[in-house]
Amino acid sequence: MAEQQTVTVKQPAAPAAAQVIEAVVAKGDLAQLTAAERVNYYRAVCDSMGLNPLTRPFDYIELNGKLTLYATRGATDQLRKLYNISLRVVSRDIVDDIYIVTVEASTPDGRVDTEIGAVSLVKEDGEWKTAPNGKRYFEKNRQWVPLRGDERANALMKASCVPLDSEILTRGGWKRHDELTIGEEVLAYDCDSDTCRWTPLRAVTVYPEAPTVVFGTQWHHFRCTPDHSWAVRREPYVARSDRPRGPYANRKPERGLVKATEINSSHRVILAAPAESGNHALTPAEAAVLGWVMCDGTIKRVGNYVGLGISQSKPERIAEIRPLLKAVGYAFSETHTITGQRTFPTGKTYRTLPQTWFYLSAYDSKALLAKAGISGPQDLPGLVTRLSSEARQAMLAAMMAADGTEKGTFGKKRKPGVMDAWQILVTLEGKALGVWRRNPLSDVPVQKMRKQRYMAGVNVSLGDARIEPVWCPTTDYGTWVMRQDGMVTITGNTKAKRRATLSIVGLGWLDETEIETIPTARRVNVDVSTGELEQLTPPAADTAQTGQEADSVTETAQAAPEDDESDYLCDSGRQGKLRQYLVRRGWTPAQADDAIARWTADGLSRRQIMAAIEQARKEH
Predict the structure, then answer these.
(1) Rounded CA separation 20/282 (Å)
(2) What does the DSSP 8-state code read for residue 13?
(3) Number of other residues whose CB lies within 10 A of the CB of residue 333
(4) In this structure, is the dihedral angle defined by the CA atoms of residues 434, 479, 268 and 580, taken in order, positive or negative?
(5) What is the SS3 assignment for 196?
(6) Which phi and psi (to 5°) does residue 180 adopt?
(7) pLDDT beyond 80 at 532
């Protein structure tokens, strides 16, 4: 038997983080690194800042011919939380057709940094012309004119805003923008933990007018500016084979904020999430008693006398209330009344069950109200925001037993504050609310708890609304809980804060919101786990890894002559896809627009367009 030989192949060791960083400094271009070096560099940067690389806090961009990193929203959101960064809008100014927002960032140790964000309020002018073939196209003339109307409002509204009748949930209940105090606690949504948390209000900004759209479904919709952001859940990518899966294998975090105009069928809009527990001393049993009193009870006051009472006719509910009062240790008495019959709002008259009243002693009534810190139902909203999770659940269950239905509908009219408190309890328990309406027979406001706390993105649409005054709050989480037209939802807030966040922690990189303002910049797909990147300057007809938006443009390499129609760009949708394709490959938006206008006027076919793109690439 031939002697076997064992050959040991020495695998190259992964480069140390220090060596990788040294290579980046020396070369200044991440594209010059190997795939393994890029992975190590990415992880080293995340480790140095305490960021989770699995959430992809940085992405790659090609800028001035070099591959570099830029910070995503996930990075700034994590950094604000890690370093307890507070943000404050210092000023908003218009200087020489530039809208400038100055933001101050500060840390608990007293460090302060200030940065600005800017957007142009002018655009390049031009005129619509008609080509010999009858097609219309827009030709720019290199002259700049001020933005007006909707365009100017959209430029100013890079912040996320909602109409003035929208309310924010505070520790004291629902408040409008002119009732707020900077620094008071408001409820915000934490995307990382999928919970709502109380956080200080940092700023309130009001705009006299801005265009708004209707966002949502037929039964669940809100008015907001087009750039307004919404908390969404995206299902993680599930591998269906062992073959390479490209950039989708590293899909973004499960939860995040997305503009209203970018919501699609892969998103589920998050309407509600459970809130952190409060620290109020009220026990669950005491909270349940208050729930019964506020819905099916009364507060009697005669001089210094205060007495709480609960009325109930249903035997099964009476059987719940009696042991509840005994468990709390309250002294109470019972009275029974024969009520006979009653005519209901429907116009029908029915015999009614005997009525039982439970009256607490004056001492226990005063003690319960004092412990709760309220004097009546009008104070209930400010109480429920401070209850423990167990007490919230107990009070909500009692209120539903008193004035709710088995299907989750609740309504209350006579006692101001009770309906608001019920909405807050439902919201804090992470349950979404349906449409707020009035019963046509009794005029009682009613609302129903939804079975799901999400709104399917496939059902979401945008509709025109109107020009109206808007406002936006600022919180550290980038979100807040809003009530609009009786409906409650989690929503986003102003986002002109990220540059200051990156600056104060020593990251001078681009923020993702700035990428679209740099004509020569384009995002590059890089697999974070392997470091493999797409070709930076692919041939014009290369369709690999370009995404669906370029498919109809780039598939011409194998197109049959009979499929090569003239006047290919007569369809505006094709123009938009081609523009995206050109900008992704290094063309400036102005160059892309000029070329598309020229090709449209000349009536070029798809094959001719691709030949022109290839010729331009060679000349460049």
Answers:
(1) 57
(2) P
(3) 10
(4) positive
(5) strand
(6) -90, 155
(7) no
Tokens 């695998």: give the residue: 11
The first and second tokens of residue 70, run together, are 């830029």
What letter represents residue 612's amino acid? A
Query: Which residue has tokens 């939804």?
Result: 450
DSSP assignment of 198-214, as one string?
Answer: EEE--EEEEEEEEEEEE
Q: List the end-to-end C-alpha distance of the chain, in Å, as a whole number.
A: 64
Check whether 537 has a pLDDT greater than 60.
Answer: no
What is the rounded distance in angstroms from the CA atom of residue 309 to the CA atom of residue 295? 11
* Residue 285 confidence (pLDDT) above 50: yes
**437-439-445 Cα angle (round to 5):** 50
Residue 608 has pLDDT above 80, yes or no: yes
- Three-class SS of residue 188? strand
Q: Cβ distance 501 to 80 under 8 Å? A: yes
The HSE-up count of residue 82 (CA atoms within 13 Å, CB side) is: 17
Q: Which two structure tokens, joined as six digits, stand for 183?
A: 């620094």
CA gap 101, 497 in Å, rounded: 9
Q: Which domains does the chain have, with CATH numbers?
A: 17-83+505-524 (no CATH), 87-158 (no CATH), 284-452 (3.10.28.10), 548-619 (no CATH)
Residue with tokens 């009614």: 352
**What Å distances lie between residue 587 and 327, 418, 582, CA to CA?**
75, 59, 5
The residues facing 258 across adjacent strands are 230
Give the integer Cα–Cα distance in Å for 240 and 251: 15
472 has which bridge partners?
Answer: 205
* Per-residue pLDDT reduced to its tens digit, 538-552: 333 333 333 333 333
CA gyration radius, the chain: 31
pLDDT at 277: 95
How many angstroms separate the CA atoms of 76 and 88, rounded?
Answer: 15
Between 505 and 557, name the one with better pLDDT: 505
Q: What is the pLDDT of residue 545?
A: 32
Q: What's the rounded mean pLDDT across residues 471-491?
A: 90
Is there a contact between 226 and 260 (Cβ–Cβ < 8 Å)? yes
Q: Rounded to two decimals, what is the model's pTM?
A: 0.60
* CA atoms within 13 Å, Cβ hemisphere of 178: 6
**Percentage, residues of the chain above pLDDT 90:** 25
The two tokens of residue 312 are 């109930």
pLDDT at 257 over 90: no
Beta bridge partners of 433: 449
> In whole angstroms, what is the distance from residue 435 CA to residue 220 CA?
7
Specify the pLDDT at position 344: 66
SS3 323: helix
The Cα–Cα gap between 212 and 99 comes to: 20
pLDDT confidence of residue 429: 95
- Beta strand pairing call for 173-175 and 167-170: antiparallel
